[in-house]
User: Fold this.
Amino acid sequence: MMRSRMETYNHKSRTASVLLWLAIILYAVLLYRTAWITEDAYITYRTIDNFVNGYGLTWNTDERVQAYTHPLWMFLLSAIYFFTHNMYFSSIVFSIVVSLTAVVLFSTRAASSVRTAALGVLVLAFSKAFMDYSTSGLENPLTHLLLVIFFVLYLTRQPDLRGLFWLSLLAALAMVNRMDTILLFAPTLAWVFFNFKTWKAGWLSRIGVAVLGFLPFILWEAFSLFYYGIPVPNTAYAKLNTGIDAVSYAKQGLFYLKNSLFYDPVTLPVIMLGSLMPLLTKNWKRIPIAAGSLLYILYVIKVGGDFMSGRFLTAPLLVAVIAFASMPLTMPRRAWIGSGAVILALSLLAPYPSLFSDASYGTVRKGLIDEHGIADERAFYYKSAGLLRMHEGVKLPDAPLVTKGKQWQEKGISLESHIGFFGFYGGPKLHTIDSYALADPLLSRLPISKYPKWRIGHYMRIIPEGYRDTIQSGKNQIHDPNLAAYYDKLSFIIKGDLFSAERIKEIWKLNTGVYDHLLAAYQPPQMLQLSQADTDKLIVLPPTGAEVKLGRVAHAKKAYVHLSNNDDYYAIFLNGEQEVGNFAIPAKSGPKDGLLPHTIDVPDKAAETGYDRIVILPRLLDGNSDFVYALRSLQLMEKQ
Assistant:
């Protein structure tokens, strides 16, 4: 089969080969022009920095918590960072090299002809999602490379035990890189495993070889359970332990696909077309490839997609491209040219095509986050961490949270919600409590805050009373007795002697639900219920804030309130049970025991729809806060 593939190449015209390499060069140019690093990547980078500097695979150095979802990517970057000690450029260069390797390997080994290869590369180059996440600092490039190698082996070998081993090994490495990518590999692996008519190996031989191939993943899971105390990343608890119903997640997942269609008209149509072609043509060898792409799209819908537009669509796009580009397509030259023109035209329908991306990308801030919380993440962070910005003399990354992190290096403890830049530049001495719980082992197991309304991937937790003091002092001062008892067990696992027999027993108990009743019994602090008249006097607030009933549906466009000095707040506007808008109220500096007036600009949607309640919620951020919250005199400006 490999011979026929190469024979196809040898008989293609020089013109087609030139077009292919021009397409690859176009991809390389766009790769350079769109290269960037997202703030989220720096969550992993802090673990890398700790690891390289002898603090272990930790995020906060005083506890063992897996705040990253991509161990293989993390280890490879760690090896590079060990020599360079420059996280930004190490990640950018490595991502570019891996992405280019994947595209060239696809073009020369996976595609059935020069023309299908050229068309496939054009799809990838004109896909906004694929270009955005060919860098970014996240694991996508390595996932892409492993997918290409896997399907090249699948397409060029007859099923045998050696082939099954290598396919299993590549799937296992991909799972160590990101666990949920197994859905992309599973249908093809199953096809090879059960396609017993084409080979003579027995069931036990096949099972044994597959298990041997999956050893990297099995060993990682064993290590994770031993080292961290749980077999999955802490981020899984933070993002899946939310109490949000499956229907809400599915709706959000469909909004994710809708967002992709608007901002990136190439990606989703190609996924669907590329996945359906093997089915429509009954190309049995490629149907499992297409099935993996479709299966992953269903998974994306189920989990609600992501807050990063397109991030979860790059791998199924590549798989769909491999599915159709590896088929022996025969079309007239005019059809090939027309297909390329359609791809180009679709890409130009995007509001911000990658083809025109330059150093100014993202300077127009309008519309970066849609109404469902899905963001053009590259546009959001390109000004701070886009590669072309270095030509303007910007030291990368350049963001307020980078500066803040450096300022907090010696302060011991902090409370933050965006922990990437801040945590990395805060250094190993700073313990950061993550209110979104990605890096916090206790908060990730607690219910999410009712307000503000959850955004996909961002699930705020209310900090339990006494938890911050517990971290600061090293002594358990959590007020709720059930939660305090649970934290004692959890703390022993993540801070105790690794090789303690008692710790191993506690890991077993934690993972088998022995202590779940303690979490179930925890009673989080309740939000105060107030009337507007109640605010005529000083009200001391719990961390959960207060819901102020207005007694009417208001449409005022401005509100005024006195709030405790040095504290950040949200004002959240409700109409019935629906959140119709929110406004971030930045802290004002002053004496710690004083209050200062604030003007609240009511969001247009809230003013138009009307609102009958306003929630005043502390944002639980460090600064000069003493974590004592208060409000007085909430007033609406009815006449404007």
